[in-house]
Amino acid sequence: MNTSVTLLVVAVLTVIGFYMGRTRALGTADGLPARLHSLPSYYGYYVAIWCGLPSLALLAAWLVLQPIIVDGMVIGSLPQAQQNLPSERLGLLMNDIRNIARGDAASQGSPMVLAAARRFNELNGLGNWMLAACALALAAAGLATARNRIAPGLRARNAVERFLMGVLILASMLAILTTIGIVASLLFESLRFFQKVPFWEFLFGTKWSPQTALRADQVGQSGSFGAIPIFAGTALITLIAMAVAVPVGLFSAIYLSEYAKPKVRSTVKPVMEILAGIPTVVYGFFAALTVAPVIRDAGSALGLSVASESALAAGVVMGVMIIPFVSSLSDDVISAVPQSLREGAYGLGATKAETVRNVIVPAALPGIVGAVLLAVSRAIGETMIVVMAAGLAANLTVNPFEAVTTVTVQIVTLLVGDQEFDSAKTLAAFALGLVLFVFTLCLNVIALRIVRKYREKYE
To answer: What are the CA-CA distances from residue 437 to residues 25, 76, 199, 265, 425 (Å)?
Structure first.
C-alpha cells in the first residue's frame, strides 16, 4: 500500500475518532454536557490524539529507517566482490540500482544490477504493506483504548492541553536546535579556515583574491584573504541604501499616520507596499540598465569618473527596495502611540509639527529603531542588486562611484559550482558568514538596549 494512502486512512480514522469520542462523552453523561469535566469537543480531541499520534510517530520513524534497512539488505544480497567495493563506488552502484528500480533509467544494467533492483522493489513493497498494517492496527488500538477510557470524570481538557504544551515545547526546541546547528556549522568550518589562513590576516587584510591554484606548479597558488575590502563595500552600499530608505520611509510614515486623510492613506500605503513584492532580480535589472547609466552620464556631465558598475547605483536602488520596510513598520508604530499623548501636547499649546517632533516620534522610537534595523539587515543580506549593479570587484574604497562587492555576493561566488570543502577558497565563505552573523547579533543587542531605554520612559 502506498504511504500516502496509509496516511489518508489514518487521517480518516482520526476524524472518526474525534466524533466517536464526542458522542461517547455525551452518551456517558446522558446528553448533559454539564455533567462532564470538560467540554465534549475535548473528549473528541482526546480520542483523535490517541488514534493519530502513535500512527504518525510510527510512520515518521518507518520512513527514516526503511531506506537504511532496505539498502543494507540489498547490499547484503550482492556478490561478495561488490560488497567489498570502496564506499564511493558502492554508493554509485546503489544509485544505479535505485534508478532502475524507480524506472528513472533504462533497464540495461547487468543481470546482477537488474536482480538487485527487483529485490529493492520487493523489499520496499513489503515494507509499505507492513507499515500500513502496523499503522492501521496502532490507530485502531489507540481509538478503542481512548474511547473505552471516556467517562464523565475524565480530565480530557487537561490531557489535550498537556499534549499541545508538548507540541509547543517541541517546536521551540526545534527552533533553538536549528539555530545552534547553524552557529555550530559556521564555527566548525570557520575554524578549519583559520587553520589555513591566520585570523588577523583575514580580519584586517586589505587584499581579497581567493582564487587558489589546484596544483603547486600553477600561478597564484596561494590566494589573498584580506576581507577589509568586502566589509568596506558592504558598509558603503548599506549606508547609501539607508540614506535613501530611512528619510523617505520615515517621512512617509509620519505623513500617512499624522497628516494624510483616510482616503489618501488607504490608497498610498498599499501602493507603496507593492515595492516590497517586486523580485530583487527586477530591481537588479532596473539598477543595471537604467539607474547605472543615468548616474554614469550625470557624472560625465559634471566631469566625474563613474564606473559602469558603481556602489551608488546599487545603494540607491536597494534603498528604494527597502523603503516599505521602514515606512510600513514605522507607520504602524506611530499609529499605535496613545491618542492621550497627542491631546496632552495640544492642550499645552503645541502645534502639529511640535507634537510630532517632540512627543510622537520619541514615543515611537523603539519601533522605529526596530524598523530601521530590519531594513539594515535586509540591505546587508541583499545579493542580486549588488551582483548586477555593483559588480564583483573587491575594491577598498569609499568612493561611491567605483565598483565594490559585499559579503553576501562573495559567499555566493565562493560556493557556486563544484567545490572542494577542504580548500581555503570554499571555507572562506563560512568565515564571512560567521562575521556577518556576529555583526547582525551586535545590531540586535544595540536595538534591545535602545528599546529598553525608551520603553521605560514612555510605558
So the answer is: 54, 46, 16, 37, 19
